[in-house]
Every structure is written in C-alpha cells, then in structure tokens.
Amino acid sequence: MEFDELYEQYFQRIYQFIYYMVSDPSLAEDLTQETFIRVYKGQFRNEAAMDTYIRRIARNLVYDTYRKKALIKWLPFQRKHEKRETQYVPHDWIMQSEERRLLYEAIQLLKPEYREVLIYRKIEELSLAETSEILGWSTVKIANTQRSAMKALEKKLGGDDFGFKQSTEGTQ
Amino acid sequence: MDLNNRLKELNKLPEDQYIKNRIYERIHRKEKKGLPIWKEGALLFTIAMITLFFIMLPQSSSSPQTASHPIQAIYMHFGGEEGQFFARSSSLYMSVKKVQDPTVFSFFEDLTQYVEEVDGKLGNHITDVVVVRDGQEEHYQISDTGMLNIDSGQFFVGNSDVYDEVFEALYSVKILPWMFIFPLIMVPINIFSMSYYKRHNLQGIKPSRRMWGLIVLVVAMLSSVFAWAAWVGPLYKPLMIMCAFLYGFIIWHHIKREVQTYSVYKVETIKISIISATLVLIIILY
C-alpha cells in the first residue's frame, strides 16, 4: 500500500486515539506526525497487519510521552513535543454537547490503561482479538480491564466520589 | 442513552482536514532532514576534549612526604617493552597498579645497596615502574636480567636476593582472572532476548542505515582505544568509563528512536544497560 493511501485510511483513527489519550490537540498533532513518519520510514510490508502496526506505533509514542514526562525529562536531544507539558484543551466538537463533554472529561480522569481499553473496545469497537494484538495482552486481561474501566467510568460519571463534577467544572 | 452508546458517539470526532494536510506536508518536508547523529558525534567530541583537559592536569595522588618515607608512592605497569614506557603515577590509568609491598619501598629507597651499575640490556620479562620520590617522578624498567633508569639511562644489575624478590613482586599479574568471564554475559543476554522475542512473537531490531553509521562510530572509537593502548600509553579510566556510558547512551538513543514495540524497547534497554554496566565494571577492575 502506498503511503498516501495509508495516510488517508489511518489518519483519523490514529489522531483520534492519540487525542483521547493525551487531551492536547497540539501534542496529538505532533505524535500523529511522528507516528506517520515512523510508518513512512519503516520497512513494514505485511499489509494485513498494518492496522495493528500503526496503532502500536501510536500507542508506544503516547506511552513514551508519559514515561518521558515522568522519568527522563533531563535527557538531551529531546524533540519539541517531548519537552512540552500537556495542556488540556477539549475539541470544539466535544464542547458542542454537554453529555459528550462530561463523558470525555470522565474518560480523561481514568488511568491510561483503562482509557485505551475503552477507546479500542467501546469507542472504536474493536474486537477482543484485535485489541489483544495491539496491546499485547491476553483477551482475559483485556476483558477484566474493560470491566474495571467501565466501573470506574460509571463512578466518575455518577457522583462526587472522585470529585468528578468539581473537576469538570474546573476545566471550563 | 446508555453508556455504551454514548462511548460509541465519541468515535465520530470530525476529521480536521487542516491538521491532516499540515501533518502530511510536514512529513514530506522532514523526509530529507538530516539525522541527529552529528549531535552524538559532537557530544562525544566535547566529552573527549573535557577529559583530555583533566588528563593534562598534573596528578597529585601521592600522599604527603614524611621524614621516614621519602618515597610517597610506587606504581607499576605489568609487561613492558624496551624503548616504551607505560606506567603512570596514578592508578586511574588502566593496568597501572599502586605497589604496597614494603620490600619494594625499601629497595627503591636506597638502590645502591642492592644493585650495581654496569653495561647491559633488559631481559624479555619487563615491568615499568614509577617511583614518586620527594614529589618527583623516577621511571624504571625492571627485568629479569637487570634494571634501567629511564630518566638517566643507567643500567643496573641486581647483586642481592632482594633484587630477585623485588622483581618477583613487581613482575606478577595483578588482574583478576575471573574478570574475563564478564564478556561472556553477552551470551545469556542474547539467548534470553531471542527466546523472549520468539515467545512473544516479536521482531527484534533490524539494523537501519543509521545503525550502520553508529557501528562505524563505535568501531572508530574502539580502534582509537586500541591504537592508544598499543602505541601511546595506558588508557585513562574516567575517560573509558565515560566512553562506556556514551556508547550505552548512543545505542539506547538509537533504540528509543527506532523501536516501534514497547516490549522490544524494554528488552533492548535492559540489554544495553547490562552491557554498559559490564564494560564499566571491567574498566574499574582492570
């Protein structure tokens, strides 16, 4: 598959995944760009597994960003996006609906593992097998994480246990 | 609407054509952009220059002189060649050891008691010795047939048992033999990583064009190290430790940029950490 065709096909789902994971449009843009640069430079030819391959790159970049922020901030030769702090900027489309905004902000309060399982399984509706391939987890682990993530999300949406209402109000 | 349907709704984030085009353009612009390998080269050069500056600084590792001991320290370098002198007045150099033997000290305190000056030639078994006396360095080469004062060019032959005792004390390997087992650590590490990749159906790193550049850099570093050790003198441990760390950093930095699977990144990072740590340990002990 040619790069242009591939870019056309995968851009939106990759950008969306990264955006939901990092909540910063500018960082999401940089990480999406980095993902496609790696795809562009890569030698991957197995088109059947291309979807998993690209998603894995995006996922690794997101985790790389989390990890770098936590552990190796001091290292030289960081790229621009690696040095920057994440800023929470909700998308206009999300802000258009109150229900959507609350849900999105509740997802942002979940830990990254829960968030990504929900993105793959509930938002993008990938199968257990597909999710398992991307995450490198067993299907049982994914099912368990999904259950815990849904519970955590319901809690966040449901009440003040986690201070959800206050925190979402604070983002306005 | 139930939670599942509300979550599905989030999959309809509209595509931003402007961002899409901008990223596309940037990817094609970056295509020709140079690799940051020059930065790594510049860093290596800077570290080497700083270390060279420290090497140039006079070493003052000797202890203060006392009335009873005019010799502050004796250093030896096992194995030497006539016409070449490798010992240095600091144990910070690789394979240079500080001598603690009191017989050697008393021997060098008054050489005239144990040796006599004659014409002669050094034997095949030579050890280079630096004696720090009254803050001044004296350079000797001691062999099975006699001893040469490098500074004055005088040749001495031992006329007592003490000379033989001193030669035996100095002509002995001080390197720990089990240290050479360390490089073998590479074997289990590689077996482990290979089996891990096989078990998890992962593909290890394939050498890219950039990797070849790094290999050339590492080979050049190694060649310089061996050339220096063979023709110039013993290697300076702090510089070598820095090189080991730098080697680890360069390879790790490459891995960080190239690897697209987190598990491979983790395994390769552990591998390079162990290799660097082993290198540092060998340098410290050698």
Shape of chain A: globular
Compute the gyration radius of chain B: what is it? 29 Å
| Euclidean distance between termini CA atoms of chain B | 71 Å
Rounded average pLDDT of chain B: 79
Total count of strands of chain A: 0
Strand proportion of chain A: under 5%
The number of helical segments of chain A is 10
Instruction: Name the helix and strand elements of chain B from N-terminus to C-terminus, one letter apiece.
Output: HHHEEHEEEEEHHHHH
Strand content of chain B: 5-15%
Helix amount of chain A: over 70%
Features:
heterodimer, A: 172 residues, mainly alpha, 72% helix, globular, disordered C terminus, B: 286 residues, alpha+beta, 7-stranded antiparallel β-sheet, 7 strands, 50% helix, 13% strand
Short summary:
Chain A is an all-alpha fold.
Describe the structure.
Chain A has 10 helices and no strands. In chain A, 72% of the residues lie in helices and 0% in strands. Chain A starts with a helix and ends with a helix. Chain A is mainly α and 172 residues long. Chain A has helices at 3-22, 25-41, 50-70, 80-83, 92-95, 98-108, 112-123, 128-135, 139-158, 164-170. By secondary structure, chain B is α+β, with helices and mostly antiparallel strands. Chain B has helices at residues 3-9, 17-30, 37-56, 102-109, 161-170, 186-199, 209-232, 237-258, 262-285, and strands at residues 71-78, 96-98, 115-117, 126-133, 136-143, 147-149, 155-158. In chain B, helix 6 (186-199) runs antiparallel to helix 9. Chain B is elongated and about 105 Å long. Residues 60-67 of chain B have low confidence and may be disordered.
